[in-house]
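Known limitations

Structure tokens in this collection are predictions and should be treated as such. Users comparing against experimental data should check residue numbering before alignment. To illustrate the layout, the record for DUF304 domain-containing protein is reproduced below. The input appears on top and the generated tokens appear beneath it.
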Amino acid sequence: MITCKPKSAAFYALIIFLIILGTVVFGILRYMSISGFQWWAIILLVAISLLMVGMLLRLMFTYKTLKLDTKKQTLTIRYPLRFGMKEVVKMRSEILYWKREDKKIGDVSMHEVEIFTKTGIPIKVNDKAHSNINKLGHYLYSNYKTLERKSQEN
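Generated tokens:
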């Protein structure tokens, strides 16, 4: 069994960012209650509130855990922030192809595994935000080498 969980550092960074934005919104509301409504404060409040909603939605839709059961040949994707949503993929029948890419962002090298299924929604995990990506990539390479699609280099 291989489990890919989100690294806590990425999750905590998003939570801290949302807390800071919430504090700024509270400060703007407090400022507006003392000094009255001003157009720039309302625009700033709306912009920061939209940013907060966007970050919360991003957190809800990208936070996932993967469990690969090597005996049953199933991949279970759990989305805990989406009210316990769970998706089970049968490896032999539902995977179309998979690929592993090495991306370089600035000076940092990052590995990304992308699995394409018949549902049409790719499952992307990378080692910057998730654990055990190397084990997942090695398992896919050793058992599903025929379904590997090489990434195109520019």
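For this record: Helices lie at 8-35, 39-62, 91-94, 133-143. The mean pLDDT is 82. Please report discrepancies through the issue tracker.
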